[in-house]
Amino acid sequence: MSENLARHFLIRDDVVFLNHGSFGACPRAVFETYQNWQLELERQPVAFLDPARGYNERMRAGRAALARELRTDPDNVVGVTNATAGLNIVARSLDLRPGDEILTTDHEYSAIEKTWAYVARRTGARVVTARVPMPLATEAQFAEAVMADLTDRTRVLFLSHITSPTALVFPIERLVAEARRRGIFSVIDGAHTPGHIPLDLDALGPDFYAGNCHKWLMAPKGSAFLYARPEMQVLLDPLVISHGWTAESKSPGAKGAFGNSPFIDELEVQGTRDPAAWLSVPAAIAFRKEHNWDAVAAYCSSLAQETAQRLAAKTGLPALSTPQFCAPQMVAMPIPACDPLELQRNLMARYNIEIPVYRWQDRTIVRLSAQGYNSRVQMDCLIEALSALLTL
Ligand SMILES: Cc1ncc(COP(=O)(O)O)c(C=O)c1O
Asked: Is residue 79 domain-shared with residue 167, that is, in the same domain?
């Protein structure tokens, strides 16, 4: 990189921070915007949170900027605190019955697996987990593995777009189309996608899609969205009933309590809330444009993938997929079996390297994230540390 981008971030410079994937990191300039919104809120909370005194317009500006990135209409997107909240809204709204099936894969994020397990327990529905073949090599292989578990009782298809434990980009397009054709709800977990891979939600056409802005888009923590296809919005109920709820919200052509659609007013108004993170999403998008982040991301991707290859050359362990399904800036690198927590602790204690290490199925994995503040020297550090600790 010609410019030292680390200076734009608040990450401590005594830490080799290789875990952008867990909670993201927000550039200094975006963080200042965030704090300015908080200050403005604190100076005159009543005016700031009054829909009739600019609040609606400010929230709408966030939706508009984000919807352009996601390639959909601003009316299809609502701000939520995190992807977990967005997916909970969907999972807990759908009218599932005993015997209904929720089809998913064995690569999902544990909090959302728990969400579906909870919903299944409450409704009598059943979670069916398709095993995705590893290493993943073709789109057809993925689609066929999931479709093999489709039955006439399948009501929901739930897939990650980028998986958490394995850092794979699932080729979900064909399955989303197939779900639509069969009248099955498609619910997509896009926690890692905004700012990481190109998105075109209208072209993809899922029924529901939740994503985080606080990870790869680099907005402040607590900024995420829930997308619902226009026809599906009426099916959703808020997790928290507040001023935005109206008894008529399910009637055709109903208006929301604050002049937006019921979808937006019911999900966005949740009691007293600090909207500063959401309001800073346009600043995060602008920061990325200003700093030509597509080029930065391409560099980070080559850094991540090259580091994974260097480690694989030492361990001799095969990758989890062919390169085409590897998330660009995040790679799950298999390592020889060891105590993952002890290795993670030693990486921090002895080398100041922050990186997740865990067991997944029968593998031990180190998940490397590369973002603009990382350097090749840090990747060398990681390889050196793993070589020493694992005696590679
Ligand atoms: C695939 C996936 N889904 C959901 C989440 C949850 O995101 P959040 O904690 O922001 O709700 C994560 C977090 O890392 C994730 O990796």
From this structure: yes
